[in-house]
Amino acid sequence: MGWYFSAQSKSALIKELTAPRETENAHTITIAHKDCGEVLWSVVEVKPKTSGKPQRYIFCDLLDCHNGMWGHKPMEEAMHPYRYSCPLAYLEMTPEQSRAWRNNVRAWHAQRSDAMAA
């Protein structure tokens, strides 16, 4: 997937990315989100309109600004986004899609804790 840019502020982009959505088949709501500078982490719940249980996913939107236009590159956990600053609590809120990615998230947080303790 590529980048999507528009003439809006970063806060407006985040508001748009975290707003509830509705499609023909499902309702989607953002349960939690965190702006980590160049990455927006979100826990999104998808509720089917017909049968089936709601499912939760971790989304990673890379954020960048070019010529005053903010853009994002959407990814999800299953794509192993190679960014690991996802809040640890989000791992507890969603079923695992990528064990390797989650291990890297935990290692990233452990490394930061060790560095702060030193």
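The record above closes out task 2.4. Task 2.5 opens with a second protein, given below.
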Amino acid sequence: MLSFSSADINLWVAGLLWPLTRILALLASAPLFGNSAVPASVKVSLGTLLAMVIAPVVPPQPAADPLSLAGLLIVVQEMLIGLAMGFSIRIVFAAVEMAGEISSLTMGLGFATFFDPNTQGRSSAISQFLALVATMLFLAVNAHLVLLSALVESFYSLPVSASPVYGGGFKQLADWGGRIFSTGVQLSLPIVAALLITNVALGILTRAAPQLNLFGIGFPITLGVGLLVVAMTLPYLATPVQNWFLDGIERARLMPRTWSQRQNNAPPAPPVQGRRPAGLSVVP
């Protein structure tokens, strides 16, 4: 007859609960997985399935009661690690959405805003369109699979531990968040430059022919030029956005390593530049 003690049950529960916490936190914050259109039951089911696959092969976990203070602190720590890894990819989508906001304001589509269920706010039409393009590219290059691979790798680079992590990884995430503004401006620069030339031309035309109604012809011309430039630049978005996905996944890989090295009092490893994660496809 089999008999189990409470310590054995606590060990089994903790062995599944702690990896599940990190996985669910990443699924909640990462793009595509954390989309509000995906039902919560699907996210929990996917996270539970991944936890059941990953938990038996992760390094040994601390023998702590999951209902104790130490166990709850481990849960909070695992949740923060998963959220940080998911946000490192979400920042790329935020940069693309910011480029759409800048383009919309320059084109005169600042009034064409819609409710965005992901951010619980308002976003412009061009911003949502570019976000959809980035999502399709995210799936086309298998970045969602590479992100899950980085999640599995994090359990080896930063095993579940009762030792607290330090703020080095969060500082990397904050520094990476600055790319939202620089990347958004770079991505919208062709549209802004074309519309600037268009507005200068309209100003010269109005000066030469004062009888023209600038408000009557300016808006459709500006809107038409903006949409034309957006259509012309779409084929060239694959390479830069794919490189940003590469950088975001590398940040997600490096943050657990940084925390692990801080715990072991080792110097942090420098960021890896120019290396493509295994499994990331190339869009021709």
